[in-house]
Amino acid sequence: MSRTRIKFCGITREKDAQAAIGLGVDALGFVLVPASPRHIPAEKAAAIRRRLPPFVSAVALLKDADAAFVQDAIDTLKPDLLQFHGDEPADFCASFGLPYIKAVAMGEKQSLAPLARRYKGAAGLLLDSHAKGGMGGRGETFDWSRVTAVKMPLVLAGGLNPANVGRGVRQLRPYGVDVSSGIEARPGVKDHDKMRAFVEAVVRADRAKK
Ligand SMILES: O=C(O)c1ccccc1N[C@@H]1O[C@H](COP(=O)(O)O)[C@@H](O)[C@H]1O
Fold first, then answer.
1. Number of domains in the chain
2. Which regions span the lipid bilayer (predicted)?
3. ipTM of the complex
4. Ligand 1 pocket, residues with Cβ under 6 angstroms
């Protein structure tokens, strides 16, 4: 049984990135969405990104940005992976020559099978709790009973925290989990005790799966 991959999103500070790396987190997300309280300019994210060790991925989170903005983010940040969080069509997501994951607005009654077909070029689908057109990163869970297996990796997100992530891992066995507000002291500032507790909860749940 493979372990659950962990992404911490909404990183804005070098010391939070380094603490996450120390905890063994697999991927760090940088929110390049100007309206987000966790927005980080691409140049600042790039400075953090340059200090990531091998095998820790940098993820650029984008929402309904135009192609020039996305390309500029890629050129500046040099992310390993793109995360599209808006209404971007599949051909747009694929047009940058980088692997991408597509966020699904599980606040709507979404059926995952047609979305997996539409975004068949995606590296995975990320399940968040926002409604279509909504923002994401709201710290709210969605009804996990609506998750159905599809033939691509699923990343569980939306309102995860140290207290509920173990249940999510045991119940849904996702490829990965993604958290932003559930490990924060305030928007954009991570709480290192919550970060540690989150990772420990995932590790414990992985052990219980076997
Ligand atoms: O974090 C944000 O501010 C954000 C803004 C716009 C789109 C997505 C955003 N965050 C992503 O939402 C999910 C769930 O976050 P949370 O754990 O419920 O706070 C996660 O993928 C964030 O990266």
1. 1
2. none
3. 0.97
4. 9-10, 29, 31, 33, 36-38, 61, 63, 85, 126, 128, 135-139, 157-160, 178-182
